Amino acid sequence: MRAQVGLQEKARIMRSKGRPYSEIAGKLGVSKSSISIWCRNVTVSMRHKKQLKKMALAGAMKGRKKWADMRRTQKKEFLEQIAIETKKDIGMLSKRDRFIAGLMLYAGEGDRTQERVGMSNSNPQILIFILNWWHEFLNLDRESFYAHLYLHVGLNEKRAKEFWMKTLRIKKEQFKYVYRPIPHQSHKKNIHEFGVCSVRINKIASHRKLMGWIRAVLDN
Predict the structure, then answer these.
(1) Structural Rg of the chain based on CA atoms
(2) CA–CA gap between residue 47 and residue 51 (Å, rounded)
(3) I want to staple 200 with a disulfide (CB 3.0 to 4.6 A). Which of 30, 80, 118, 162 is the partner?
């Protein structure tokens, strides 16, 4: 009984100094509910109340971060599993598969006016695919294309050009101009680090063939 009284007194002293119930329970080796009962009449100073509130907020932030990290890990594992499964669904693309895929990609993302072959995108994999496709099915070499860059103010032009040159295997001389949009409050927040790259070539015959193939697929 004396031991319990001693624990209660220690708990009240710690609580009066602004220590949270969880910490007191851990140090004294008793349940948090017992600490709550023992200390329910303990007066905590305003300074210690602020300290408790600060600690509670810090604990909540730590809990939210832990939850967010767990959710990110779960999402990553889920996406990795989906990637494995969907890759099996697709398998190895045949030449005809690549041909149709490229036509549909161009129908959605490619230049359809001004009779030029071109595409703009922020996703390097899409531009790599289409450049290879143009070479395979239209016999157009990537050295023949010129490039434009749509880059928001504040982003590094030299770094962006180096990224696209390395990724797409094009030369510095192929960049014709860089467009910097005027900053506006309504612009979306997810600005692409390396901008949007456009690759184009003025080939009327190739463009007309592309449009003909696309019409043939859509009319099939």
Answers:
(1) 32
(2) 6
(3) 118
Number of neighbours of residue 13 by Cβ within 10 angstroms? 13
Identify the CA nearest to 123 among candidates 181, 177, 196: 196
pLDDT above 60: residue 188: no
Q: How many CB atoms lie within 10 A of CB 193?
A: 12
- What pLDDT shows up at residue 185? 56
Strands across the sheet containing 117-121: 117-121, 196-201, 146-150, 175-179
Q: Which helix (H) or strand (E) holds 163?
A: helix 157-168
pLDDT tens-digit readout, 14-24: 887 778 888 88
The one-letter amino acid code at 78 reads F
End-to-end CA distance of the chain: 90
| Residue 15 or 136, more confident | 136
Instruction: Enter the pTM of the model.
Output: 0.62
The type of residue at 166 is K
Q: Which fold has domain 95-219?
A: Endonuclease I-creI (3.10.28)
Query: What is the residue extent of each domain of the chain?
Result: 95-219
